[in-house]
Specification:
- The structure holds two protein chains of two kinds.
- Chain A contains seven helices and three strands, in the order ββαααβαααα.
- Chain A is mainly alpha-helical.
- Chain A has one domain.
- The longest helix of chain A is centred in the N-terminal third of the chain and has 23 residues.
- Chain B is an alpha+beta fold.
- Chain B has three domains: 44 residues, no CATH class; 63 residues; 237 residues, Lipoprotein localisation LolA/LolB/LppX (outer membrane lipoprotein receptor (LolB), chain A, Clam).
- A twelve-stranded mixed beta sheet of chain B has the order 8-9-10-11-12-2-3-4-5-6-7-13.
- In chain B, strand 11 and strand 12 form a beta hairpin.
- In chain B, helix 2 packs across helix 3.
- The relative contact order of chain B is 0.10.
- Classes of the chains: A mainly alpha, B alpha+beta.
- At the A-B interface, helix 1, helix 2, strand 3, helix 4 and helix 5 of A face helix 1, helix 3, helix 4, strand 1 and strand 8 of B.
- Strand 3 of chain A pairs antiparallel with strand 1 of chain B.
Chain lengths: 183, 362
């Protein structure tokens, strides 16, 4: 019997462990992991890709890869970090190959009624997010899902020592852009 | 200990800081205030990330995919799973088929019924973006001032075009063409309400201004005609099947770059042919900000590119009528005449008459 060890700092899944008997169909386990991590993975992919449709595709592909991973008897030491690492790679691939069709963002469409101040604030925040470079978005999205610096480093391929500095810079960039947008 | 860096503050906010950072924060009021400010910014940013939830349809779709993956890849399933008796098969494949049908029905309903009502497709193609930019070209109200950098061909360098148009009265406009040195080279202005049309041409360092008046002469909306040409090219781009669309993040948002790959010029009989084109559309309002095209019009090759430098729109009441008039200086030669339907004949006729008058006066 092998046990999935979830890092204690992770949100939600702390203390949760899932057992799997040898030779057992892993789909039940994948569905259970999907139930547990679907929201955070979707948010991560949605933020990184700025598209609901692409995020859904990325989440689906991530769990299909998880299924293959488990069927092949892959490493189960930290499946949450594994999921985010795979999702991050899929998002990167998707951004790289996305050319012909692009997500439609209703906030681009200005043919609507004048927005309220609250909507303007939210738009300023969203606009500020858009100017963040892809790597910053990736790190922020991983952090938002409660990943530790070590897990972020593992999922993004960035040195653990650099994660804090890059996150600090991303937050500062975003804040400056929001302030500039609200003036 | 010195005050904390932004990186150390971020680590403290993210609960990744060490004991030294924590103890400094307890002692230093200034760093505590900075940490609070950073925490607020970080929390707000992370809340933006987490403001979305996957829809039930996403759930269903992924569950179906996971459930049906085993049946699709029967050869890839190993061990006990592959040998399991048929009665022991999981319930997912059957449920997946039923769910897939339900999902398909829901998708058809949304695409056919719901989306057209909201006019909000979930994706935009290059063709749709071009369609929207065409709408913005023809829409508008008030006095619009556009400044473009224009390149007709490489030999003539970059020019700056200033176009002042009364969107409510398209025949009322002023077009000014500044050369690469920034000096006004030519201009045309027109105001049908005042029955006035003026041309300016700079020759050998001197401005020649032709003022024509007629209350009855038809006034041609030249900016609209130029716009019609751009619209024609964009419509051709829209109709082409192999546009390449790229999404570019810029400080002001997102730009759409749409490009037609170069094609070999054909000796067809079409009035307007397009060999290659590239346009940049501002994602905020679908306005064309950059445009390059080459092709042939009436079998004459053309190459044109422009880049929008500035655009302002003002209420008509806030724009003095003098802005639609070409001002004349003391050294300028000013000629007057009567406007007719033929703009070219007006110019040549007035110039020749003035020439004959000056010769007879010698």
């Amino acid at each position: 019997m092998s046990t999935i060890a979830i890092a204690p700092m992770l949100k939600g899944s702390a203390g949760v462990s899932t057992a799997r008997a040898a030779g057992q169909d892993p789909r039940g386990e994948v569905l259970s992991l999907f139930e547990e991590h679907r929201s955070s993975l979707f948010r991560f992919c949605r933020f990184t890709l700025a598209s609901d449709v692409d995020a859904e595709d990325a989440v689906q592909d991530t769990f299909l890869k998880l299924l293959q991973h488990l069927e092949r008897g892959g490493d189960r030491s930290n499946l949450r970090a594994w999921l985010f690492a795979v999702a991050a790679n899929l998002c990167r691939d998707r951004i790289r190959t996305r050319r012909r069709w692009i997500p439609w963002d209703s906030s681009f469409d200005r043919r609507t009624a004048p927005p309220s101040d609250e909507v303007l604030d939210r738009r300023a925040m969203a606009d500020a997010i858009r100017i963040l470079p892809p790597r910053d978005r990736l790190l922020v999205a991983l952090r938002a899902q409660g990943l530790s610096y070590r897990e972020i480093a593992s999922a993004s391929g960035i040195r653990e020592q650099s994660v804090g500095r890059l996150l600090a810079r991303a937050v500062s960039r975003w804040k400056h852009a929001v302030d500039a947008g609200q003036k | 200990m010195r005050c904390l860096t932004d990186t150390e503050l971020q680590a403290a906010v993210d609960n990744e800081g060490g004991e030294a950072i924590r103890s400094h924060l307890e002692r230093c009021e200034q760093c505590r205030a900075r940490a609070d400010e950073r925490r607020l910014a970080t929390d707000t940013l992370l809340a933006c990330v987490n403001a979305v939830e996957p829809s039930p349809a996403t759930d269903l779709r992924v569950r179906n995919a996971i459930a049906s993956a085993g049946t699709d890849r029967a050869g890839g399933v190993r061990g006990a799973t592959a040998l399991r008796a048929s009665w022991a098969r999981p319930w997912w494949p059957r449920a997946a088929v039923i769910s897939a049908l339900a999902t398909a029905a829901a998708v058809v309903l949304v695409v056919q019924v719901v989306l057209p009502r909201f006019g909000a497709p979930t994706t935009l193609s290059a063709s749709e973006i071009l369609g929207r930019s065409l709408q913005t070209l023809s829409a508008g109200h008030g006095i619009e001032l556009l400044e473009y950098e224009l390149t007709l061909d490489a030999a003539h360098g970059h020019r700056r075009i200033e176009q002042l148009v009364d969107r409510d009265h398209p025949a009322r406009f002023r077009l000014s063409n500044f050369g690469p040195d920034g000096v006004l080279q030519s201009a045309i202005s027109q105001d049908p309400a005042a029955g006035r049309r003026s041309h300016l041409v700079r020759i050998d360092g001197r401005n020649y201004i032709f003022n024509f008046t007629s209350p009855d002469a038809p006034f041609i909306p030249i900016p609209q005609m130029a716009q019609a040409q751009v619209e024609a090219v964009i419509t051709m781009m829209q109709a082409t099947s192999d546009q390449k669309l790229t999404l570019v993040d810029t400080p002001h948002g997102t730009d759409y770059v749409i490009q037609l790959p170069p094609v070999t010029p054909a000796n067809g009989g079409a009035m307007l042919e397009l060999y290659q084109a590239r346009t940049v559309v501002d994602g905020r309002d679908f306005r064309v900000t950059e445009f390059e095209a080459s092709g042939a019009m009436l079998k004459q090759p053309y190459t044109v590119s422009f880049k929008l430098i500035r655009r302002t729109v003002r209420e008509p009441a806030g724009v003095p009528p003098e802005e639609f008039i070409l001002p004349s200086g003391s050294d300028d030669v000013v000629l007057t005449g009567e406007a007719t339907i033929d703009m070219f004949a007006d110019l040549v006729g007035t110039a020749l008459r003035e020439l004959a008058r000056s010769q007879s006066g010698r």
